[in-house]
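Narrative of accomplishments. A recurring question from our advisory board has been how the design workflow behaves on a single, concrete structure rather than in aggregate. To address it, we present the structure tokens for one chain from the evaluation set, followed by the sequence designed for it. No filtering or post-editing was applied between the two.
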């Protein structure tokens, strides 16, 4: 038997078709690359801004929040101070006439203490407040689909300034003991706003309960020696500057002040005098 050899003819692709196929392949590769780059750029544009926080000390007393520029028209900034939440909680307590809060009321105070602002800049300045500070930023476009994501919350623990102790001494004046040379500590809110503390907590070695006095009341305080307990031979007075305000009748305590936001109360200053 004769072997039958089958031969396959390989058809050569015409040159024009080869060029066309190569061209189509190049176009597809370029399209894939362009699409990938476009998606990557869009994803990059939608990435959250990178936020940094700087806390400035005296005399500026500012918090500077800055972030990198994004391809958006504006920026939405959300920020929170734990001190604002405390003030909100005190307002709720005052309104309901109770010293305690429910979990729902605490959540309400937290939500009310989160503030927002819009800007077309990449930096904002806020007044410094002690306690926990949190902030996050997102880029906002005319079309919400082009907004960036919110950044992660950036958190800073901001230390309080401490008020200096008041200065004073006790003197005998006949049958009375009086406070002399009382000096209030000073405070500074910024380079242009400063002053002297006018409210103080007071206690003494006879009565350990703390009372709130104004500077005027401190300056006119006096003790009649014959009226003091017979079993004591020395009087010690303790006074410290406080960071809040009080109505002169003692009925209302106000912590929503610039001093309270920056300072904590001083330590007690003390002075002793022999009675006998």
């Amino acid at each position: 038997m004769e072997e039958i050899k089958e031969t396959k003819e390989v058809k050569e692709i015409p040159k024009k078709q080869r060029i066309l196929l190569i061209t189509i392949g190049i176009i597809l590769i370029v399209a894939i690359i362009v699409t990938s780059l476009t998606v990557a750029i869009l994803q990059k544009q939608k990435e959250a801004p990178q936020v940094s926080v700087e806390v400035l000390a005296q005399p500026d007393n500012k918090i500077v929040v800055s972030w990198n520029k994004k391809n958006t028209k504006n920026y939405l900034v959300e920020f929170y101070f734990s001190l604002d939440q405390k003030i909100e909680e005190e307002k709720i307590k005052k309104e309901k006439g109770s010293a305690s809060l429910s979990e729902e009321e605490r959540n309400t105070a937290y939500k009310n203490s989160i503030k927002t602002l819009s800007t077309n800049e990449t930096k904002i300045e806020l007044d410094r407040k002690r306690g926990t500070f949190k902030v996050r930023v997102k880029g906002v476009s005319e079309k919400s689909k082009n907004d960036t994501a919110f950044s992660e919350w950036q958190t800073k623990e901001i230390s309080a300034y401490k008020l200096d102790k008041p200065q004073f001494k006790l003197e005998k004046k006949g049958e009375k003991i009086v406070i002399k040379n009382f000096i209030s500590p000073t405070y500074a809110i910024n380079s242009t706003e400063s002053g002297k503390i006018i409210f103080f907590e007071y206690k003494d070695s006879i009565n350990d309960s703390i009372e709130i006095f104004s500077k005027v009341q401190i300056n006119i305080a006096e003790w009649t020696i014959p009226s003091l307990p017979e079993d004591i031979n020395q009087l010690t007075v303790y006074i410290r500057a406080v960071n809040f305000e009080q109505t002169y009748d003692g009925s209302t305590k106000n912590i929503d002040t610039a001093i309270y936001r920056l300072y904590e109360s001083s330590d007690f200053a003390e002075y002793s005098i022999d009675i006998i």
